[in-house]
Design brief:
mainly alpha; two-stranded antiparallel ribbon; 5 helices
Length: 144
């Protein structure tokens, strides 16, 4: 039987603030994916610009976080959050859903491309290539 090492989920405590490995994996995954997307766009396409990818970064963050949180609430613990609605905002207690994050990102991709008149297919080609970076680091960040 394989045994996993006991890893503290908190990397660092700074007063009341705790920096978790999972949060670090999100940040690193998003930044690496964004940089790789910029590299792909410069090298392989003249239709998607660095500025468009830079602008999309905030949209993607919103889709990941809001979608992930809402997905967890709706798919896994709806009764708990109906009984205690203020806990919706207590993100430090955990509760993100891959399914919700994915749906959130799909929605913001559609909205962003429509708003900026970008081909959804060209944009999705780049995002499909960079998504595994975030998924891999997010998965690794869960092993604590």
């Amino acid at each position: 039987m394989l045994t996993f090492p006991q890893i503290d989920p908190v990397l660092l405590h700074i007063g009341p603030l705790s920096i978790h490995w999972y949060g670090i994996s999100y940040v690193v995954g998003i930044l690496l994916a964004w940089q790789y997307a910029v590299w792909i766009a410069k090298r392989f396409t003249q239709t998607i610009t660095k500025t468009q990818l830079d602008d999309f970064l905030m949209w993607a963050l919103a889709g990941i976080v809001i979608g992930g949180r809402l997905g967890h609430i709706l798919f896994f613990e709806l009764d708990r959050y109906i009984a205690n609605p203020l806990e919706i905002f207590m993100t430090w207690k955990g509760g993100m859903s891959f399914h919700g994050g994915m749906l959130g990102v799909v929605i913001v991709i559609l909205l962003y491309c429509r708003k900026n008149q970008i081909s959804i297919f060209r944009f999705a080609d780049i995002l499909a290539a960079v998504t595994p970076i975030g998924l891999f680091l997010g998965t690794i960040g869960q092993f604590h």
